[in-house]
Amino acid sequence: MKLEVEGLTVYFPYESIYPEQVEYMRELKRALDAGGHVLLEMPTGTGKTAALLSLIVSYSIHKNFKFKLLYCTRTVHEMEKTLAELRLLASHLPTPTSLLALGLSSRKNLCVNPHVLSAQSRDSVDAACRRLTASWVRSLAHDNPQVPTCPFFESYDRAASAGPDALLLPPGVYTLGDLRSFGRSKGWCPYFLARQMIRYANVVVYSYQYLLDPKVATIISKEMQKECVVVFDEAHNIDNVCIEALSVSIRKQTLEARLKATDAGRLRAEYNRLVDGLAQRGNLAITDAWLGNPALPDDILKEAVPGNIRRAEHFLSVLRRLVQYLKSRLLTEKVETENPVNFCAAINSQAGIDQKMLKFCYDRLHSLMLTLEITNTDEFMHIQTVCDFATLVSTYARGFSIIIEPYDERMPTIPDPVLQLSCHDASLAIKPVFDRFQSVIITSGTLSPIDLYPRLLNFSPVISRSFTMSLTRDCICPMVLTRGSDQLPVSTKFDMRSDPGVVRNYGRLLLEMVAAVPDGIVCFFVSYSYMDGIVNSWNEMGILQFSHASIENSTFPMVMLQLATKDVMQHKLVFIETQDVVETTLALDNYRKACDCGRGAVFFSVARGKVAEGIDFDRHYGRLVIMFGVPFQYTLSRILLARLQYLRETFQIKEGDFLTFDALRQAAQCVGRVIRSKADYGMMIFADKRYSRHDKRSKLPGWILSHLHDAHLNLSTDMALHIAREFLRRMAQPYDKTGCGSKKTLLSEEDVMKMSEGAMDTY
Amino acid sequence: MYGAGVAFQPTSSAGGSSKEKKRRDEDDEEEEDDNEGKGTDAWERAYADERSWEDLQEDESGLLRPIDTKTLVHAQYRKRLLLRSSTGGSVASRIQKGLIRYFYIVIDLSRAASETDYRPSRMAVVAKQAEAFIREFFDQNPLSHVGLVTMKDGLAHRLTEIGGSPEAQIKALMGKLECCGEASLQNALELVHGYLSQIPSYGHREVLILSSALTTCDPGDVMETVQRCKRAKIRCSVIGLSAEVFICKHLCEETGGTYTVALNESHFKELLLEHAPPPPAIAEYAAANLIKMGFPQRGAEGVVSICSCHKEAKVGGGYTCPRCKVRVCELPTECRTCGLTLVSSPHLARSYHHLFPVAPFDEVSPHGRPGQRLPTTCFGCQQSFVGQGGAQPSLRTSCPKCNQFFCIDCDIYIHESLHNCPGCESQHNSSV
């Protein structure tokens, strides 16, 4: 359908539209007109992506494709979903438009060469590719046909050398799969093709890192012009992504592995320099290429590499001294916290390396590696870490701290020294993006409280708004459970969490719910250690009964707890998330199977874990989610303490406020997993007495709050059970999807026309 | 609300056979029980959930009045009727219906059936309603057969063989009411599939599962069984007692059945009775084929003969197969010896109305179109449309064929019980 949004013709790929989508588009249009940054919260399942894409693409058609859309997603899966949505949209655009949209991902996802793909990790795929495609390898192959090269890259290169126009993707929408099959049919390398084509594409979908991480951004995003519109989807954790992009942690192993590699590198360096003396030339050429870097501050780019590390052997000795110094720091017995300025000064006095040299470590290493024609970059990962560290620590004087911990806080007996450079200021990484691009749109299902994000990221949005969901029926049912059936309060507060009464009440809650809720239930706990503890106690109480084999297996984390004969197991199978990704994936697969075949299953997971962030439990995979406790961060962590202090001093954000905000955002994220569309339904139980307090509760997103009735604020287990039963019966009844009368939730083209006319009249 | 919809009783003295009436009276009682049940746990509910203010509405002068439940009931009835006629096809385009149904009722007697959210327990409610359903089913489908299967302890067990007598089924059901263990959907489906795949091709194979459990403990892949049922053209329907379960929904979608979840006892009854009228025939069967049937004679009283169904000598009663002269006890059935379908002619006649339903009547506004004089009395019961003391004239409807006017009560009676329009019939007679 087509609709008018304040004079702009918007092409929308569906026959009908939700009213909040129209609202969303209107706000977006205003923001684009104003050319500023936007913060928009709209619940999941309301077609955020569709609304966003249709408006921006229509807007760009209106402006004759003057600007590009850079759409950043968190995961490859989301990228695929976005591109699928975009393809649907493309088929509804007027015919003469030539929209080119493509997804860009790492080599691992795009490569079509079977030899390269046989490598396991992302880094080894990258390395394997470089071994085949690096320029010196190819020139070697030119003389000696025995040297293996990649046939796809070769033919791509031949096509590319014929001129820029010879190498064109026809207009259309390309998912990663499409790119691969296109590459296969043409015999071109899809990865390099995609990297080439982002220059011409109207829409590019890629990962956050390509814009935020300064290392990657230099390579990928440097050619984007100012008029781009940047979208960060699912951006509720954007501050953490920014911080991670600029944080480095160094362990003992890192340093040791590094030394070995450096030795090998040194040998080859000397050899190579003898052979062709290329070091100097390569160095300078590469430094030029850094210009236009969007993410590193300008000053680092303008300066030339200082003379005393220009020569490779000098640079290597500098690195060796640096590593020695870091090693000596790691020998410490107590926890140390330092700021970067002091740290640099200490390095200068003790290792004789000045700040400027540190600053160029990263670039210098990179150019060295190019000169040395090192293709197996994965083996050099550790040196790169150290150089990243050096560059970062010397570049930023504020917003960072260096924390050296000789052992893990939770296991003080095992020495595991770690040196962390942690970034406290999320605005550092994202600042170049805000500065460079005209409009940055940050959107997610949970951005509450919305006023905190501009402060954390240090920008001023032209529009920040939170939308609610218009529903035909009350398909979400949040509840706050504060006490068990025996009226004792439940909480995961530190002084209460190991109380047997609390543990029992939580157990009873789970037990009652597994008997009353069909198919899938997801439980979130505040941490792995808490989950292990409480599951153990439940086991002892006989609430969960495991088969003997699994109890004997004392390490406890297990993929699947086989069915036994009592209590929870009678109703549902239990699956547990562990820190191991493969195990968890297996557990999830089996969980889904158990839900599909009607056996029913419970999934125990951890807030802030992988499952809480990226896995959807929609439809029958999640009819109920129970949030056991408030998922506060581990408040004794040095990094967190340092960050809190920084936030208080720099942005005047109170510690308590930030912690609550962060905990509630995690909780909302967890419970939001169950509802992914309007036709879906699900219940959410917040099982902690602290949720009934206004200061906690009010930080939940509006679309949850609006369904949280006062009557559901202070429930005990039996009351919650009663409500759950009623709710499930009500939801199982057939309903009319479009809604009726004034509560219309699905608008057709005429409805939208009428609505906009109505709006005109009121103005 | 739903209870009221069913419990409505026609005012006309002619309305409803005594049996019908009895059933409705029972229903009224149940409703009272139900209300009492609600009363006891009212303290558990928040006041907000009761929504008592929704029973009130403001009239023209701004006074609050309770909503007229009777009008609501009528509106609901009309909606249902129109829905049925729209899905079932109008009179003009008659569609085939499966009149000869082989119908298995699967009753879930797993542990979940002992829950007491229905009073006294889910199991008791299911049994009671299943009894009523079986009677109603045979009333509406005299040519059909019913069998009972129970699920308990992870196994499925055939309670009764598929047969045409309501009494035998009900007796068998009432004797076996105890629940324990798990329910197994797959075992039940496999069992039913085994039995139903043997029946002749003109018969419609149906399963109705009354499921209390929210989980099913299966020995293998239930999805395969679902596909086998689909291939065997068994129409599976499920009525859940507590919540929507994905696998049940999947089963019903795949096999063309309906999946419903009951809100309370009266709603459960309503959902159950929806399965009594025959469903539209599946397209593959739509090709009409002739079925050989025998119309046996009733044996003389006092004659001793050997009955083929019980394998023993019996005195009196019984029917004799016209082809092989063997004695059978009851109709409809299949002859044990020659396999002929044996029915009686009233059975056929009683199935007839499903194929030629009375068209839904048009609603007429109480004031009529300008220039048209409306009769003041109902054609059916002769009662005046205009209430005493100038009250609002009640809703009236007219038959689209004979254009006679009926009150809503007669409308309900004609469509639910009589299946003939008195207006059209009398017209027909006078013209002859």
Short description:
The complex is a heterodimer of chains A (763) and B (432). With 763 residues, chain A is of the alpha/beta class. Chain A is built from 35 helices and 22 strands.
Explained architecture:
The complex is a heterodimer of chains A (763) and B (432). Chain A has 763 residues and is α/β, with parallel strands linked by helices. Helix content of chain A is 49%, strand content 15%. Chain A is built from 35 helices and 22 strands. In chain A, the strands form four sheets. An eight-stranded parallel beta sheet of chain A has the order 6-5-7-4-8-13-3-14. An eight-stranded mixed beta sheet of chain A has the order 17-18-19-16-20-21-15-22, with helices on both faces. In chain A, helix 9 packs across helix 10 (190-197), helix 14 (252-276) packs across helix 21 and helix 15 (279-289) packs across helix 20. The longest helix of chain A is centred in the middle third of the chain and has 25 residues, at 252-276. The radius of gyration of chain A is 28 Å and the shape is globular. The model of chain A is unreliable at 273-303 and 546-565 (pLDDT under 50). In chain B, helix 8 (222-231) packs parallel to helix 9. Chain B has helices at 2-7, 18-40, 47-50, 69-87, 122-140, 166-174, 185-196, 222-231, 246-255, 265-273, 345-355, 408-418, 422-431, and strands at 56-58, 64-66, 101-108, 145-152, 155-163, 204-211, 234-240, 259-261, 293-294, 297-298, 304-307, 312-315, 319-320, 327-328, 333-334, 341-342, 362-364, 396-398, 405-407. Chain B has a six-stranded mixed beta sheet with strand order 5-4-3-6-7-8, sandwiched between helices. Chain B has a three-stranded mixed beta sheet with strand order 9-16-15, with no helix packed on it. In chain B, strand 7, helix 9 and strand 8 form a beta-alpha-beta unit. Mean pLDDT of chain B is 76; it is low at 1-40, 46-50 and 88-93. Chain B is α/β, with parallel strands linked by helices. The chains are: A alpha/beta (763), B alpha/beta (432). At the A-B interface, helix 34 of A face helix 9 of B.
